[in-house]
Inverse folding.
């Protein structure tokens, strides 16, 4: 079988080339063609020696997931559904804003962590994406948005501000830190000046809080970190996010503090999905302030995005505002995420793709509205 070159970062490609007695600079050339210029045809890699082009054609390929659907929302948000084989599809979303363009990408087909409020989680889990499938989402979006530099397009015209995709967030389907090695390879490509050349501050990993993997990320490749918090107490977080039973809040807060020693940003972003009557009271806002008092942070409140068969409801705008006010009075910078691309189901937690569930989760009983309220009541 041919080697798919999209599975390699610079070190991997250099090692593979060394196995063919090719020098590291050859690997750099090919890396640039693939990831900087968006060229997949070895014959068109004009500065690569002819014998090497022939050799690559024989032994290698530059294979990407196929685009099954490409949807554009009224607000400019774009969503791609990519075929990753065996009936699995994953989604990526581009969100244009005035001063930046953010691509949100997926890291797994489904997710095994089963958070109560998440549509990806409810679909179950099939498998980790490969590094090529993760970085392939960035490649596909760049091509669709005409964001590759091209060897003939001068570098000067390509400052960061001129890029369409200036930021990448690993906040799509799946838990990035449960697919560590492949995510790491993809992150290295995103940051590599011979590939996508993004700044560490503009690449964000979002995690539900896998503590040992937060430490590994800190040591291997620190980028901006977002942590899905969603509850001020272990009792409630245990119910909403089963991972909390393994890594409770005190351990998570300690991992955040350790991360900040090496983070390119001097704060952690805490994501907090606003669930009506479950985690959105004034008392809970005050508990949160106590919980994070030793962790420099910002809060990003996410109004819950409903999906079929969910029992949760979105907090009212007034309750969200009140919650944000309390955090801000404690000098915690708090933003409320605007729902984008709702007409194409592209908002947070709505990415569903297609998952051939191997965990039979969909056959288990869904949380009822009654159950959601019961959770809130037993804890208040
Ligand atoms: N697994 C990672 C990254 C993917 S989820 C994580 O959990 O952080 C990206 C964000 O969307 C997380 O903060 C997640 O909690 C949030 N989210 C999940 N379901 C949601 C929903 N239905 N409405 C709003 N946000 C949701
Ligand atoms: Fe997985 Fe994140 Fe969804 Fe939880 S919120 S089920 S960790 S994708």
């Amino acid at each position: 079988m041919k080697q798919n070159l999209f599975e390699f970062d610079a070190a991997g490609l250099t090692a593979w080339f060394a196995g063919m007695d090719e020098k590291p600079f050859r690997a750099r050339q090919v890396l640039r063609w693939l990831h900087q210029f968006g060229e997949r045809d070895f014959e068109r890699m004009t500065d690569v020696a002819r014998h090497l082009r022939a050799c690559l054609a024989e032994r290698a390929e530059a294979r990407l997931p196929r685009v099954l659907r490409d949807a554009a929302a009224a607000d400019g948000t774009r969503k791609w559904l990519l075929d990753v084989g065996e009936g699995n599809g994953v989604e990526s979303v581009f969100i244009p804003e005035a001063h930046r363009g953010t691509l949100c990408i997926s890291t797994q087909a489904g997710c095994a962590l089963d958070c109560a409020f998440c549509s990806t989680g409810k679909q179950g889990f099939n498998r980790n994406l490969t590094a090529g499938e993760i970085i392939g989402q960035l490649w596909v979006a760049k091509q669709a948005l005409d964001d590759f530099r091209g060897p003939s397009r001068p570098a000067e015209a390509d400052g960061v501000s001129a890029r369409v995709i200036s930021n990448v967030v690993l906040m799509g389907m799946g838990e990035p830190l449960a697919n560590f090695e492949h995510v790491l390879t993809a992150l290295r490509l995103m940051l590599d000046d011979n590939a996508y050349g993004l700044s560490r501050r503009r690449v964000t990993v979002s995690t539900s809080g896998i503590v040992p993997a937060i430490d590994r990320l800190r040591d291997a490749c620190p980028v901006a970190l977002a942590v899905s918090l969603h509850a001020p107490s272990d009792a409630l977080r245990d119910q909403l996010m089963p991972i909390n039973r393994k890594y409770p809040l005190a351990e998570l807060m300690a991992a955040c503090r350790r991360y900040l020693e090496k983070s390119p940003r001097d704060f952690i972003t805490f994501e907090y999905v606003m669930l009506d009557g479950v985690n959105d009271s004034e008392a809970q806002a005050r508990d949160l302030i106590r919980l994070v008092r030793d962790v420099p942070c910002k809060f990003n409140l996410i109004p819950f995005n409903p999906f079929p068969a969910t029992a949760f409801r979105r907090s009212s705008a007034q309750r969200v505002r009140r919650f944000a006010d309390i955090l801000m009075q404690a000098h915690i910078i708090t933003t409320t995420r605007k729902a984008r691309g709702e007409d194409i189901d592209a908002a947070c937690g709505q990415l569903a793709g297609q998952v051939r569930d191997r965990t039979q989760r969909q056959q288990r009983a869904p949380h009822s509205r009654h159950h959601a309220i019961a959770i809130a009541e037993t804890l208040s």
